[in-house]
Amino acid sequence: MKLKKVLCMMLASVMVIGAAACGSGDGGKDDTPADNPPTEQDDNQEDTQEPADSGEEDPGDDAQGGAAGGTLKVAAVETAYGQDMWKEVCAAFEASHEGVTVELTIDKKLEDIITTEMKSGVFPDVIMRAVGAESGLTETFIKDNNLVDLTDVLSMTVPGESGTVGDKILPGFVENSIANPYGDGKTYLMPMFYGPCGLFYNQGLFTEKGWTVPETWDEMWELGDKAKAEGIALFTYPTAGYFDAFFYALLHESMGNDKFQEALKYGEGIWDTPEATAVFDIIEKLASYTESTTPANANDNDFQKNQQLVLDNKALFMPNGNWVIGEMAEAPRAEGFEWGFTALPAVTAGGERASYSFFEQVWMPAGAENQDLGKEFIAFLYSDAAAEIFAKSGAIQPIQGMTDKLDGDNKLYYSIYDTGAVAVMDAFATTDPVEGITARSTFFDPINSLVTGDKTKDDWVSQIKSDSDQLRAALK
User: Fold this and answer.
1) Which of 91, 101, 167, 184 is the most exposed place for a label (fewest CB within 10 A)?
2) Contacts of 286 by beta carbon, 8 Å cutoff, 6+ apart
3) Nearest-CA neighbor of 251 among 50, 422, 120, 113?
4) How far apart are CA 335 and CA 312, in angstroms?
């Protein structure tokens, strides 16, 4: 669950270092309970830049010229998707690239394995580890400007295919502050597995009661009153960290993209705007509709007790990602239970309904020795051959045509953007470290105190303004 535990979207984001996000994709978020995977390699590598001349087209050739032969070090964090898919993809890359050997390091605690070697100057060529992890590995490389520019990968031909990598990736997944952490128009982190986040509920209960899923927050409060009369809470959440995806989506709905981008950079005065006030008012009211036992169980050990509330019809909605379906697969549930999934209600009638999408990222450290072959491998990750291997394990990439190949719960889940929801993917801007302040501690963790009554909305907003002043001053 950690990868929003986590897409991710937490996480699944480029936050102040140390902030957890749901992002990344151990099939879950990286800041809640469940972790992710990696790979390892050898130092003396031979990097042959030019493809072998066989007289025929090499499937490894790309727009910049393929690489033939050599050893590639790949490190990937093991998530709920497991190790087998990475082993199979690496084997497929070797089979299509004569003379290439891939040394794969994959583990749930990837950092523990590769950090020692990196300190001695031996780096993986390709690393699959998303922002938002507790270790802050990816954020550290971002802050130290130790990433390889991967913009040229977008114009590379996908190995074995005729189109380019950029043509296959869905809109928005490289045009955001996570893939482009420096705001220079260049891509440093390539999007991999993604997971839309929204509100999960029991469709069976709604059918039984004749209730409709609210399309606005006003309708949400009306439903909350109906549910309360039957002893059902309107809302719960696994941990406060799950409010990252929720907060970003709600902020975008209320502010629109321009002011949303200002807020992500802690813009002066942004938290005093009517749009920001609307967000704070909604979350304050939602706290009053939240199942009272939620904060006590909102931790990495007991979070599933909060998720169980939805399965037991004790709470209607919870923010989450699709990993929750697997996490709760063996849990007891009310008769007729059926997963439902929806974007956040609109702030105003007819307004935007948003769903945040966590996505994991693959990148190259500046110390990688075999960069050309590493870029060829990254391009291969977007091939139909690789995508099919990943999809068998439930790892879905943001590439054209994937939702057409899905069915069941996955079809419902990944098609949310096909039914009108706006995809939100940005995150709070990276800053130099500010002691005692992270995006999570400022914007998300206080939710517990709002629910218990230990903190008021005004206390929370005051903290946000004060912390934002310090974060703005520390912007890179």
Assistant:
1) 184
2) 234, 235
3) 422
4) 9
Q: By three-state DSSP, how is residue 389 classified?
A: helix
For the chain, list residues with pLDDT below 70: 1-68, 476
Q: How far is CA 55 from CA 16, 51, 52, 58, in A?
A: 51, 11, 9, 9
Locate tokens 């004749």: which residue? 210
Residue 398: count other Cβ atoms within 10 Å of its Cβ. Answer: 23
The answer for residues whose C-beta is within 8 angstroms of residue 383's C-beta and 6 or more apart is 158, 159, 160, 161
Tell how far CA 432 is from the center of its chain.
22
Instruction: Please report where in the chains the tokens 């497991």 appear, as a residue.
Output: 82
Whether 339 contacts 410, CB under 8 Å: no
Show Cβ contacts of residue 76 under 8 Å, excluding neighbours closer than 6 positions.
37, 38, 39, 86, 104, 105, 106, 110, 127, 128, 129
For β-strands 354-363 and 126-128, DSSP reports them as antiparallel
What is the distance between the alpha carbons of residues 402 and 322, in angstroms, rounded to a whole number? 16
pLDDT of residue 39: 30
User: DSSP secondary-structure letter at 403?
Assistant: G
Token pair 């995977």 in the structure block, residue: 37
β-pairing, 315-320 with 233-235?
A: parallel
Query: Which sign does the torsion angle of CA 399, 403, 408, 409 carry?
Result: positive
- Give this prediction's pTM: 0.72
Q: Which residue has the tokens 């042959």?
A: 48
Residue with tokens 């045009």: 175
Tell me: the pLDDT tens digits for 271-314? 999 999 999 999 999 999 999 999 999 998 999 999 999 999 99
Strand partners, 190: 362
| Residue 476, pLDDT score | 67
- With a CB cutoff of 8 Å and minimum separation 6, the contacts of 187 are 149, 150, 151, 153, 154, 174, 179, 180
DSSP string over 224-268: HHHHHHTT-EEE--S-GGGHHHHHHHHHHHHHHHHHHHHHHTT-T
Which residues have a Cβ under 8 Å from the Cβ of 398 and sit 6 or more positions away?
A: 169, 170, 173, 191, 194, 357, 359
What's the rounded Cα separation, in Å, for the pair 114 and 124?
8
| pLDDT value for 68 | 57
